[in-house]
């Protein structure tokens, strides 16, 4: 089996719907150094149009996903100024044959994540 990839999506838990238009950056992390791998924006389904890392391209290591949520919540007038600005999730990939799906569940005042399938 060729290795799986990396994907994400963002759900607005306060509104009970996908969060569209949120910029997302993916970095590889090695010590104190970060290497930008991709930038994208969530679509109407709160997902990215393409996987962040394509099937077979995922390598073991530490990664960071950064979601820029301030403008999204500012546009909704959820809080003034938005309480959350950017959210960075750092995680480690060990099994490159497994798919890593790292969703963000976010409201104007809190967030959570998990490793999905």
From TrEMBL:
SUPFAM superfamilies: Transthyretin (synonym: prealbumin). Keywords: Hydrolase, Purine metabolism. InterPro entries: Hydroxyisourate_hydrolase, Thyroxine_BS, Transthyretin/HIU_hydrolase_d, Transthyretin/HIU_hydrolase_sf, Transthyretin_CS. Signal peptide: none annotated. This is 5-hydroxyisourate hydrolase. Homotetramer. It catalyses: 5-hydroxyisourate + H2O = 5-hydroxy-2-oxo-4-ureido-2,5-dihydro-1H-imidazole-5-carboxylate + H(+). One of its GO terms (molecular function) is hydrolase activity. Belongs to the transthyretin family. 5-hydroxyisourate hydrolase subfamily. PROSITE patterns: TRANSTHYRETIN_1, TRANSTHYRETIN_2. Catalyzes the hydrolysis of 5-hydroxyisourate (HIU) to 2-oxo-4-hydroxy-4-carboxy-5-ureidoimidazoline (OHCU). Residues 6-116 form the Transthyretin/hydroxyisourate hydrolase domain. CDD domains: TLP_HIUase (cd05822). Its EC number is 3.5.2.17.
């Amino acid at each position: 089996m060729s290795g799986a990839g990396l994907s994400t999506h963002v759900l607005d838990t306060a509104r009970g719907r996908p969060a569209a238009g949120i910029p997302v950056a993916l970095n590889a992390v090695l010590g104190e150094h970060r290497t930008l791998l991709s930038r994208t924006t969530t679509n109407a389904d709160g997902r990215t149009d393409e996987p962040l890392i394509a099937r077979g391209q995922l390598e073991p290591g530490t990664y960071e996903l950064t979601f820029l949520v301030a403008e999204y919540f500012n546009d909704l007038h959820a809080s003034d100024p938005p309480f959350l600005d950017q959210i960075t999730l750092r995680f480690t990939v060990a099994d490159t044959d497994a798919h890593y799906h790292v969703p963000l569940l976010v409201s104007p005042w809190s967030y959570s994540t998990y490793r999905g399938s």
